[in-house]
Amino acid sequence: MTTTAAQPPPTRSPLRGRWIDEWNPEDAGFWERTGARIANRNLWFSILCEHIGFSIWTMWSVLVLFMGPEYGIDAAGKFFLVAVPTLVGAVLRLPYTFAVARFGGRNWTIISAALLLIPTILAAIVMQPGTSYGVFIAVAAVGGLGGGNFASSMANINTFYPESRKGWALGLNAGGGNIGVPVIQLVGLLVIATAGIAAPRTLLVIYIPLIVLAAVLAAVSMDNLSSVRNDTGAFLESLRERQTWVMSFLYIGTFGSFIGYSFAFGLVLQNQFGRTPLQAAAVTFIGPLLGSLIRPVGGRLADRMGGARVTFWTFIAMVVATAVIIAASAMGSLGLFTTGFVLLFVLSGLGNGSTYKMIPAIFRAQATAAIAGGTDEQSALLRARRVSGAVIGVAGAIGALGGLFINLAFRQSFLVAKSGDPAYWSFLAFYVVCAVVTYVVYLRAVSTVGSAHPRPAHAGV
Asked: Do 225 and 4 contact (CB within 8 A), yes or no?
């Protein structure tokens, strides 16, 4: 939802701080001389801040493991508790995207990183038996601040790189941020193993100096691009595009699954299989870690095979993995159940990469068709870049709502059936619908006027 004006080599005004007034990454000479170095520096510190943002966003998935019977919160209450920051983080993704152009990428990275101190310090204050459930809900909601960091980080890094390198840069940025989920779960495991479940504040005390360090490093090492502007026209146009809503729906199935299961898995292990907090924490990080690491692989497979094909088969595999979970639940097999969930994490990671790759391909295909119909090539390609950038922001926000739906489904399932089985069946049905939508919209053969041979509805997507 942001655009950059192409201009010659970067200059900084001492009066304006770390602002770059001239930026043209599409100029090969400029890129080799100075652009790549500046862009890569901003990328690494963006990854650091986004990584910690993901950790703070998902910290309640770890804190609930410390909440024993003395807290007086049942399974349904805990699932709702972890659903709240998911919702807030999803809602914040849109304003966070616009904030980059309004305040500057570096400036907003500093602000958004520093804001993470609020939910962390508040959690350290209230995290004890006797605190009311309403207070826990309010503090968990503030934890949603970490969920917005992904959107602003992606919008910022997108402006630094030429079109030919954006896939790699955005994949690295997204994957490095996602790894913040298993990292805080690993830290939580170490705290439970060493200090015990009575020491949740230890986890929070570890992260407070890390947040400060990330904000300081962003201030010292990152830059603002003065040529970045909010493209509200592209945003409004994206809302009128049918493809925006189809891709947002599919992203609910991929990223929504990843973040939703990241919040819920530890609670499921505790409540369905009677795992202790330590036993649950020893397993919960594995799926998010593998799902984060494999995300770039999904993008690379999409480059080779087409994003729609990879996404379709990913959803088919997610149906199978969910069926394994249902069978394991009926058998009471913890090993098979865990295997099924880890598979779901891996598949959701693959799908994250392939669905994001589909978005620019869809609008590039539209541009190609428009050019064949007589539209000016430059204007058609410009529209494709503008609208696809806006759709990525919209889909990222809506897709994150999938995490809310998953935790609410688990809440209702354990409340009514005292097990996760009804939720698993609903997830399976949803993945079937996602596979059907992917096939019908992007892979189903349709007749081409004047041709005896059918072609895919969106060839190459």
From this structure: yes
The CATH number for 231-461, chosen from 1.10.443.10, 3.40.1160.10, 1.10.630.10, 1.20.1250.20, is: 1.20.1250.20
pLDDT confidence of residue 451: 46
Both structure tokens of 364: 């590039």
**DSSP secondary structure letter of residue 420:** S
Question: The tokens of 1 are what?
Answer: 């939802």
Structure tokens at 199: 């020491």
Q: How far apart are CA 418 and CA 434, in angstroms?
A: 28
CA trace torsion 124, 125, 131, 135 (10° rounding): -90
Look at residues 400, 397, 398, 420 and name the one whose alpha carbon lies nearest to residue 409: 420
pTM: 0.87
Following DSSP, what letter does each residue of 341-401 receive, concatenated?
Answer: HHHHHHHHHHHHHHHHHHHHHHHHHHHHHHHHTT--HHHHHHHHHHHHHHHHHHHHHHHHH
Give the Cα separation of 302 and 310 in Å (integer): 6
Q: How many residues does the chain have?
A: 461
Lookup: tokens for 351: 């799908």
Distance CA 48, CA 308 (A): 31
The residues, ordered by sequence, that sit 6+ positions from 105 with a Cβ below 8 Å of its Cβ are 42, 46, 152, 155, 156, 159, 222, 223, 224, 225, 228
Residue among 391, 395, 387, 397 at smallest CA distance from 234 = 387
Superfamily of domain 1-230: MFS general substrate transporter like domains (1.20.1250.20)
For residue 303, which amino acid is it?
A: D
Spatial separation of the C-alpha atoms in residues 75 and 151, rounded to whole Å: 31
Matching fold, domains 1-230 and 231-461? yes
Smallest CA-to-CA distance from 60 within 138, 170, 129 is with 138
Burial of 146 per CB tally in 10 Å (0-12, 13-18, 19+): buried
- Measured in degrees and rounded to the nearest 5, phi and psi for residue 296 equal -60, -30
Report residues of the chain scoring pLDDT below 70.
1-17, 445-460
All structural domains of the chain with their residue ranges? 1-230, 231-461
With b for 16 or more beta-carbon neighbours within 10 A and e for fewer, the 436-451 pattern comes to ebbbebbbeeeeeeee
Specify the pLDDT at position 458: 59
Q: Which pLDDT value is given to residue 460? A: 57
User: Using the 8-state DSSP alphabet, how is residue 448 labeled?
Assistant: P
